[in-house]
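We treat protein structure as text, and this decision shapes the records that our systems exchange. This encoding replaces a full spatial description with a residue-level series of whole-number codes. Below, we set out a record of this kind in full and without editing:
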Amino acid sequence: MTHPQAVNPLTAPPQRKGGRQRTTLTPEQLDALLMLDVVEAAALLRVGTDLIRREIREGRLIAENYGTPARPLYRIPRPQLDAWRAERRAAQAVK
């Protein structure tokens, strides 16, 4: 009798449900990460992955591309994500 192997949520690929990517990490695990991918950053901020990618492409959110220009694989340092979030909050408060 074979037993399914336990899945490590830190290394498992994100799950796709209903066309949306979702991370299997808990909020506590997301808070502990120093580098986040697009799906993790979107889950942490409760926004869409398209918004994160657009902000990176337009230069408002700093990220490192570990892929190719045609198929980017972004990693976002946590301090950069926190600074971007604070900047957006300040801009919304002014409106």
User: Anything to note?
Assistant: The CA atoms of residues 45 and 85 lie 8 Å apart. The first strand starts at residue 15 and ends at 17. The chain has a mean pLDDT of 83.
